[in-house]
Write a structure and sequence with these properties.
With about 130 residues, the protein is an alpha+beta fold. It is about 40% helix and about 20% strand.
């Protein structure tokens, strides 16, 4: 029989109740995500790339994953990552947008923030 945890029998493993699982799923779906503008900065060269996202936490994870996998879409960022390594990079949240923004306004506000921060930091755009 398959054992989920080393050294534990099936009878020792306590599975969450159906209600507890449903509660956890509901909480996950209801969580608020932070949307806004972010920068990826190479501390070795000072180069900065700016992007916007509807979920900044997921964007950071995805960006680092693609950079580690040498598959990032922004060639200049990938080249600097390859040259200087992960320790030379920072992910910065530049601005978070209010959760109460009407959904139809989000895209325009994100585009506006991206343009503003690219100009302010002299950065390159990220897709």
């Amino acid at each position: 029989m398959f054992r989920a945890f080393r050294g534990m029998s099936e009878s020792e493993i306590e599975m969450p109740s159906k209600e507890a699982r449903k509660e956890a799923i509901r909480n996950f779906k209801e969580r608020k995500t932070l949307l806004g503008a972010y920068a990826v900065r190479c501390t070795a060269t000072g180069h900065v790339w700016v992007g916007v996202s509807r979920n900044l936490d997921a964007t950071r994870n995805g960006c680092w994953f693609t950079l580690r996998s040498a598959s990032h879409r922004e060639k200049s960022l990938q080249d600097e990552w390859n040259a200087h390594g992960e320790s030379a990079f920072q992910f910065e949240i530049l601005v978070g947008l209010d959760e109460e923004i009407h959904p139809l306004e989000v895209d325009d506000l994100l585009k506006e923030q991206k343009k503003t921060w690219i100009a302010k930091l002299g950065a390159q755009p990220l897709l």
